[in-house]
Design brief:
With about 180 residues, this protein is α/β, with parallel strands linked by helices. The protein has a single domain, classed as Rossmann fold (3-Layer(aba) Sandwich), CATH 3.40.50. It has seven helices and four strands. The chain has a four-stranded parallel beta sheet with strand order 2-1-3-4, with helices on both faces. Strand 3 (about 120-125), helix 6 (about 130-150) and strand 4 form a beta-alpha-beta unit. Helix 2 (about 25-40) crosses helix 4 (about 65-80). The relative contact order is 0.18.
């Protein structure tokens, strides 16, 4: 948008609204979790929804991201038919000296293990595809924190990646946003 300000001719532009609370997206997440739970060695006691963190000051300045993460977790819980004890929201990838959104995933999974929860699953709803922050940070660093604190069974639930449900959701988002353009 800063670049467009300098243009004397303004091209048409659209932005896509966040889709964190779309029913088809929530269903895609729920389906991936149900599949992971069906194949887990033991049914996890708690699902940790680990979202990418941001500095807390963003929330204080009115950024809606924290609320969007909380709503995604709530809608997912409702879709799965779970109660509050079976799902939690945490934040990962903190760096730098300032306070970030909390609880921090790496610390929360350790607390859970110390309090006796020995079997958890972790998913990353804000990531559409697996990357270094999911494969390495969650499935290695966060898993290690959980196990070091006494956790026994850690299930990493992959991102939606190219799952049928995810592709359908993205196709729906694209089709809806192209209306009137094509």
């Amino acid at each position: 948008f800063r670049s467009l300000i300098k243009q004397t001719w303004q091209p048409a532009a659209r932005t896509v609204s966040p889709y964190f609370d779309r029913p088809d997206y929530i269903n895609a997440l729920a389906t991936s979790i149900e599949k992971a739970y069906e194949t887990a060695e033991l049914r996890p006691e708690v699902l940790v929804c680990s979202y990418h963190g941001v500095p807390k000051r963003y929330l204080m300045q009115g950024d809606p991201y924290h609320c969007q993460c909380q709503k995604t977790t709530r809608l997912l819980k409702e879709r799965l038919g779970w109660d509050d004890t079976e799902i939690v929201t945490t934040f990962q990838s903190k760096f730098g000296p300032e306070e970030w959104l909390q609880p921090y995933t790496v610390e929360e999974v350790a607390r859970m293990a110390e309090k006796g929860q020995k079997n958890i699953a972790v998913c990353a709803p804000a990531f559409s595809a697996d990357c270094i922050e999911t494969l390495e940070e969650i499935n290695e660093e966060i898993k290690e924190s959980f196990e070091h604190a006494g956790g026994e069974h850690f299930t990493y639930i992959p991102c939606l990646n190219d799952s049928k449900e995810h592709i359908e959701t993205l196709s729906n988002v694209i089709s809806e946003n192209l209306q009137g353009w094509i």
